[in-house]
């Protein structure tokens, strides 16, 4: 009997030890799995940060090279910059000529239109200065020179954006800043700290939104190959559209640039809040403060589009 009890007790202790061992083993495996997943996530985040750092560094080095090349011929740089300033200034001269015959356009005064023009002109000028070269991607796809960029240990987007960096484009930025300054000094607005803060925010977020449109248009050229004008319709055409108040366009067009291609978040929605004007399409007023979120979302979507286009590229002759 005593031997049977001893065997039973020993069996129960053994079973308990096995159970404890199994529990600890499972806990150890589970702990190891969570640590492994965390390590992979940390490794992916570090890789993305390293890629971004390398891209920005490479962009800066290539831009510095083109700036040094441009400044070798200073007189040429000054003339081309003035030409860029004058070419874009003609758009506002046309608006001034219109206001020599009318008092308001779409219910907006000259000063109010100058604010709209200045915000979008400055934002687009900054974007065009930094990313304007990506519109040449279609040409590189067609003639096969994109392949030379793929074999370099530098992000392709950074190389494309910095390729033939045109410092003369600061003329467009300067023209937009001057018109914006004129508009802000002459417009009749009850300024508050919030409205004052929204002006530089509009310029920065507008540049990011335009940049996202530039990148998406460039990604589209991986498939279309010869669609630079389609891209220009949304970039340069979008800039021209936003120079005028939304009341002069049809509501369907206003809805399109509000809910499909979010160009209205560059200046229409926030600027109309600053000017105290109603938006022609019924939207919540809080959307006037949404441009930073829209800029982040547009940048994220453009990154996905760029990676999809780059993966679809099959080089020439294939």
UniProtKB/TrEMBL annotation:
Q: Which InterPro entries match?
A: ABC-2_transporter-like (IPR010390)
Which intervals of the chain form a coiled coil?
none
Write out the entry's keywords from A to Z. Answer: Membrane, Transmembrane, Transmembrane helix
Q: Which Pfam families match?
A: ABC2_membrane_6
TM segments? 75-102, 114-134, 173-191, 197-220, 253-274, 286-306
Descriptive protein name: Putative integral membrane transport protein
The organism is Streptomyces clavuligerus
């Amino acid at each position: 009997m005593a031997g049977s009890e001893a065997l039973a007790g020993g069996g129960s202790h053994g079973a308990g030890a096995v159970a404890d061992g199994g529990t600890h083993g499972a806990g150890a495996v589970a702990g190891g799995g969570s640590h492994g997943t965390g390590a992979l996530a940390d490794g992916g985040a570090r890789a993305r940060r390293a890629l971004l750092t390398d891209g920005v560094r490479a962009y800066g080095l290539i831009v510095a090279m083109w700036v040094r090349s441009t400044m070798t011929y200073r007189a040429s740089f000054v003339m081309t910059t003035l030409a860029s300033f004058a070419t874009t200034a003609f758009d506002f001269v046309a608006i001034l000529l219109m206001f020599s015959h009318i008092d308001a356009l779409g219910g907006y005064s000259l000063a109010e239109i100058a604010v709209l023009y200045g915000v979008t002109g400055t934002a687009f000028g900054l974007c065009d200065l930094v990313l304007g070269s990506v519109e040449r991607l279609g040409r590189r796809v067609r003639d096969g020179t994109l392949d030379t960029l793929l074999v370099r240990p530098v992000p392709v987007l950074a190389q494309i954006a910095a390729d033939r960096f045109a410092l003369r484009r600061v003329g467009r930025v300067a023209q937009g800043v001057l018109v914006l300054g004129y508009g802000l000094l002459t417009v009749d607005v009850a300024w508050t700290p919030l409205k004052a803060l929204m002006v530089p925010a509009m310029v920065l977020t507008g540049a990011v939104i335009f940049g996202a449109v530039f990148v998406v248009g460039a990604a589209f050229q991986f498939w279309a190959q010869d669609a630079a004008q389609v891209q220009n319709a949304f970039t340069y055409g979008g800039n021209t559209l936003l120079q005028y108040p939304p009341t002069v366009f049809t509501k369907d067009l206003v809805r399109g640039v509000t809910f499909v291609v979010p160009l209205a978040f560059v200046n229409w929605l926030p600027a109309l809040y600053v000017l105290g004007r109603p938006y022609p399409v019924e939207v919540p007023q809080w959307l006037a403060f949404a441009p930073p979120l829209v800029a982040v979302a547009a940048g994220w979507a453009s990154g996905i589009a760029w990676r999809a286009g780059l993966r679809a590229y099959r080089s020439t002759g294939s």
